Hints:
Layout: H1 19-24, H2 35-41, H3 49-62, E1 64-70, E2 74-84, E3 90-100, E4 107-113
Amino acid sequence: MEPNERLPNAEQAVVPPGKVEGYLLNDLHTQNQGKAQFFCFAGYGLSQPERLENDLKTMARTGRVTSIETTSRGTLYVVRGKLIAPNQREYRLTTVWFIQINQHVPALVTAYPNKK
């Protein structure tokens, strides 16, 4: 697979339980690095975490793969695309998805705004 293609099996993409509430929207998570602040500014919140989850799954289907890394456990796909947030603004976002060896369902690893 070459970069700029679609994420394999993107229509089956999953966001693991707790990924949105416990990580992306949790400013206290040690690896959050400002993601919660960005997503809250964009209008996402803990009162409706499914909105961010659904928007990330949409990005899996509509974004473009910009890099691929094969590991001993599976393959990481960096997917970039646009996100229309609840505040009605458009943001460019990077998401990382992982497909385990002998599996075909992409699972979200992380998401963050593009620097530019």
